[in-house]
Amino acid sequence: MDLKIKIAEEDEELQAASWLRALSFYAYPPERKFAGELHQIMIAEEEFQLLKAQRANRRFEQDKVECNERNACLVAVASANDSLVPPINEKLYIQQGKQETRHVLVGTLDVHAVRALPGESLIGDCTNAAYLANVCSAPCARRRGVGGLLIDAARQLAREWGADGLYVHTMAVNEIAMAFYKNNGFVVEKEETSNQAHYRGRCLDGIEGRGRSVLLRDTNFGGV
User: According to a count of CB atoms within 10 Å of the terminal CB, is the N or C end of the chain lower?
Assistant: First the structure.
């Protein structure tokens, strides 16, 4: 699969990234197909508006000599004509500019250079931290190195921003995500207790506190 990793700037790229997140993080069983599709539409629109606001802020902040907070949405884009890319959800296709060749978005993540991510209680132990968020890939791109390429691009961007540590949050029960990050050089640095998660309202499968967070640090980052 021939991929291009880039910062999403065009509306079509941000829209496709929003849809990939809605489809990845809010999957529904067949018996709830109608309600699920309505919810995914709402989530995709909310995410699209958020990504556009972050883009506007990034363009405003880039002219400043010093900027303490930065963000970017990275996307992995492949040619829709690539034989290794099977037909996937139409919402993920991109018509880039005036080019006749369509592309398809197969992976995305956000990079934030902030002291702490909103809604997260675990903070990295460094002066200038950067965090990954919304890491996901289309089913056709899984186990093909797309996630690793996105993380490599995020590392480079965070270094350019002057970060001295790269982190990611996930749920302790998410074994697939934990294995993925560990395979890409991350180690557990901090984790919530069930009681801490309970008091923050982290409920999963109807069990209070089961959605406790884990903070992982990238041992391959190195900083500036």
Answer: C
Q: Model confidence over 199-208: pLDDT tens digits? A: 888 888 788 8
Q: Which two tokens stand for residue 42?
A: 């709402």
| Res 42 pLDDT > 90 | yes
Burial of 33 (0-12, 13-18, 19+ CB in 10 A): exposed
Q: Longest C-alpha distance within the chain, in Å?
A: 55
For residues 43 and 61, give the distance between their C-alpha atoms in angstroms, rounded to a whole number.
Answer: 27
The pLDDT tens digits for 142-175 are: 888 999 999 999 999 999 999 999 999 999 999 9
CA distance 148 to 72: 17
Note the pLDDT of residue 65. Answer: 43
Give the span between the Cα atoms of 21 and 136, in whole angstroms: 7
- What are the extents of the domains in the chain? 3-218
The set of residues, in sequence order, having a beta carbon less than 8 Å from that of 128 and lying 6+ positions away, is 113, 161, 162, 163, 164, 165
According to CATH, the superfamily of the domain at 3-218 is Gcn5-related N-acetyltransferase (GNAT) (3.40.630.30)
